[in-house]
Amino acid sequence: ATGPGIFGPQTDAAVRRFQRDHGLVVDGIAGPITRRALASAMEGAGQASQVSVDHNTTLHYDGSKPAPGTTRTDAWNPVNAPIQGVSGNRSVTRYNDVINQFAVGVNPRYAPRGGNTYCNIFVWDVTRAMGAEIPHWVDGNGNRVGVGKGRELSANGVCSWLSNHGARHGWRKVSAAEAQAAANQGKPVVSSWLNQGGIGHVGIVRPGEITSRGPAAAQAGGTNFNRGHVADGYGSRPVSYWVHA
User: Fold this and answer.
1) Cross-strand bridge partners of residue 116
2) Residue 5: pLDDT above 90?
3) Tens digits of residue pLDDT in 42-88
4) Measured between alpha carbons, how far is 197 from 138 in angstroms, rounded to an integer?
């Protein structure tokens, strides 16, 4: 299709809306990062028409409220999220929708309670929905098992699992820049910090722009947010990044 070639108020508003919906810096400028995100979204839309309805390609969430089926507060049990991703259907649109459906900033599933926080549960939920599960229940060899049939992974446990078992489950360690680039391609990306003397932390790298505060992020924990950056959750702590193909 062709247009008048004029970048007017309506086009500016559309660009800003797209940037906001995809976790980008909202400046109304169709720069390289915005153009790549737009191309990925268009590619994802083309793929969606060929995907079965089981993958819920018509559902979209903005992170303001949790999707049905994602709010159970017995956090040791999995949820059945309505939007699912698979390794053969990666796009920035799908990854954003998967993350947003959990509305981590307002979802009671991840609200701190009883002295506990739930960063590990959020990572479990997102990676499970993306078809790249970092399990919550594992056996002695790090293999996923049913609820109550093994041990639960804490945040430190997730960090150790990624280091010791991640590679055979499709996870590899990358730099912060590589993490953001992978998330912008719709690949599942996780951040982690192993705390040898206490409670560690894990989170999700989401599509967006890397800044002086690190890659774009969503997390549960002491502070829950759907859109922020890694330093908002980790501060100055040393963070590792992991991407799933």
Assistant:
1) 113
2) no
3) 544 443 333 333 354 568 899 999 999 999 999 999 999 999 998 88
4) 23
Start-end of H helices in the chain: 9-21, 32-48, 92-100, 119-129, 155-165, 176-183, 230-234
Bridge pairing between strands 137-138 and 151-152: antiparallel
Which residues in 51-82 are b (16+ Cβ under 10 Å) and which e? beeebbbeeebebeebbeebbeeebeebbebb
> What amino acid is encoded at 187 in this protein?
K
State the distance between the two ends of the chain, measured CA to CA, in whole angstroms: 34
Comparing CA positions, the residue from 102, 100, 85, 57 lying closest to residue 187 is 85
Q: What is the torsional sign of CA 65, 106, 133, 20?
A: positive
For residue 119, the 8-state DSSP code is: H
Does this model's pTM top 0.90? My answer is no
At residue 165's C-alpha, the angle toward residues 54 and 205, to 5°, is 60
- What angle do helix axes 92-100 and 32-48 make, rounded to 10 degrees? 80
